[in-house]
Amino acid sequence: MPEEQQWTILATEQPPEWFIQAVKQYTPASSGLYAAQLLWQRGIKDNQQLTAFINHKAYQPASPFEFGQEMHLAIARLQQAYNTKEKITIWGDFDADGITATSVLWDGLGQFFAQNTQLIYYIPNRLKESHGLNHQGIDNLAKQGCKLIVTCDTGSTNVEEIIYAKQLGIDVIVTDHHTLPAERPPVAAIINPRYLPKEHQLFNLSGVAVAYKLVEALYQTLHNVAKYPLEDLLDLVAVGLIADLVQLSGDCRYLAQMGIQRLQADFQQPAAARRRPGVGRLLELCQKSGDRPTDISFGLGPRINAVSRIQGDASFCVELLTSRDVKRCNELAEVTELANARRKSLQKDVQAQVAQKLTQLDLSTTSVIVLEDAQWPAGVLGLVAGQVAQETGRPTILLSTEGAGEQGAGGRGQGAGGREQGAGSREQGAGGEITSLSSNSELSTQNSALALARGSARSVNSVDLYQLVKEQAHLLHRFGGHPFAAGLSLLVENIPLFTAAINQQLRQSLGSTTLTPTVQADLTVTVADLGKELFLELKLLEPCGMGNPVPKLLIQNCWFENSWHRNQQDWQGKKVQYIKAEFDIRDDSSRSAFPGLWWGHYKDELPIGRCDCIAELDYNTFKKRYEIRLIAVRSSANSALNTQLSLTPYILDLRNQEHSATQHSALMIEDCPTNWDDLRMWLRRCLAISRSTSGLENQQQLAIAWSKPNHQPPNQIWLTLVGIAKYLSRTNQLVTRGQLLEKIGISDRTLLVGIKALKYLGFTIQRQDRSLQITWNPNDSSENLADEAVARFLAAVREEQFQQQYFAEVPLSTIVAIASYDNK
Length: 824
What we know:
alpha/beta, six-stranded mixed sheet
């Protein structure tokens, strides 16, 4: 189970008064102190830096020809293709950066080359191919008469495939931002910011930004050809930049600032007048307005990424982002939304399975978490690995052996020489793209019939994951990555040896250092500080990203009121996907409360009494209110909670275990509860026994001993209830409520809803002593009313089953915490 988080508060150096006054010019409604502290803390320490950071109009972007000779070579080759009307293929990638980069080249180069005839694009299938160029795709392009491939967000290390393309008479221009090859490949040009010095303002460009710079250079070279302004591409550039989690400094920040403005301006237009109706429809579906970087990182980016994770082929996303056909874009946006709902469902399922496997690990002796399963879909492993790494404070590697018996160690599919599938996870907090590749050729040739596991890895706590994995290259088939994320494949039989070796390696490098999950706060504020003024002040730092994270606020000695939660459903409301708690937060600084929410948590997980929390301040465009988004919460060091822990009964967790009631002197709860009140009743009873008998020195134990419920579908439960009612009516037999509950397997509360529904179908239920008599006299009551009553019953069953599923898996630590809160 996840360990308790370690909280750290950044030491804030007080900026000089002149700097605070300089920042205040941009925040006339507030003091500017908090923004000044953050900016100073993040290295913005003079007027020139401050002006360029906040006001993009004061920033001087770099010329695309800062890439030097390679950009000149690329433009010369494109000019040749323009003059001789050669056929060109854009070779993209299947994640958000690759999709937007392809879209930028499609729209940008499409101003000079006829789309669909002279200019086409190709995006590998995530589930069948890897990242990068591959032989089969090149063969297909050669048959179509292609003479030039322009890559985006890929290709730097595809030396073998580039040579193969050249042999078929196809030149290659590489635009990329990943790790460079040892030697320059035989390309027409290679435009990659990693050739530039690290301090260069173009060094951190993502794939979409590099593609934009190529189009910018072509616009400057072939004057007066393009019909649409270059700036029309900037919204796509912003989406790719922010979704890719690159460091937003230099030209990256400038392009993102410009692009967000274009994105917001286009969204404010009527749907029929938008330049990008597909982007607008996606924003509507995720209830965003496009004016915040988080609208991309939590809205657009995950949806674009979801398509390849679920369907493999993400080619239609380019049409979604570039088409002007409103009807077609609406259709594609809805397909994308469904893919994202499916992605969330798969991710939730894998998370639950991973959590179960984690209970079997001793984290005190585990430095690197390595887990495998034959049923895990590779497309979501990076996302789940990132969450596990954050929760446990340990590098996490998740492997799928799905179909391993059918693939060989040399099974690169169509993606030979590409980057490993599953490691390109760029959604918020999920890590980054693979930046280099290694392949164990001996394994590839000698063990081509053996089974492979594929997976993704994510890191935390400044552990260099790439170097960690690289040290075990002799055990791997292929791998690639960077310090925070990696993808790998290895023989299934090598997994135990790999797990032991990588754990031993990290333990040796850490020495006496202990890995713990950490959360870091930037500023300490009060509830009175929260609101529009502080939000606008902190908004000066946007767009936030790597190197400039969203400010985390520490609120001390606070408490929560009016909390509630609800189950969020997918886009069509068919399946519960996740939960969200909402609340008001208070402290002694103000008489007014401030709203907030906590994604993925129930209201009962909020502390009762005073506590500390770390949160982000946000503006909810859907509800049109300022609110906090809770990141972490813990009891205050001086709260009453800590002095009352001795009252907590000793709780045994016997869930899903074979046990006998006579084996334990504990009170046994064998029926899975459906709400906290049911559990609180047992906790109070247990505590009362402790107080009335031997006192607190020898507490009565309480055993939670229910098994994971095996639920019937709600419709089947309803049919069973109707069938029992008809049988009882026909035989004139009596039945107790207890007998009904046992037969149907629902709670008394839900049975009452079912009885009301039976009455609408013509059943009469009368009480005789402690039993019920049911008779049936079909009537002409409204079918609509009957349907509504049945729907209410089915909804009650679904909610009850969902709650039971929660209590089947809720951590023991949460139950202990609830007991502590109630008995303080």
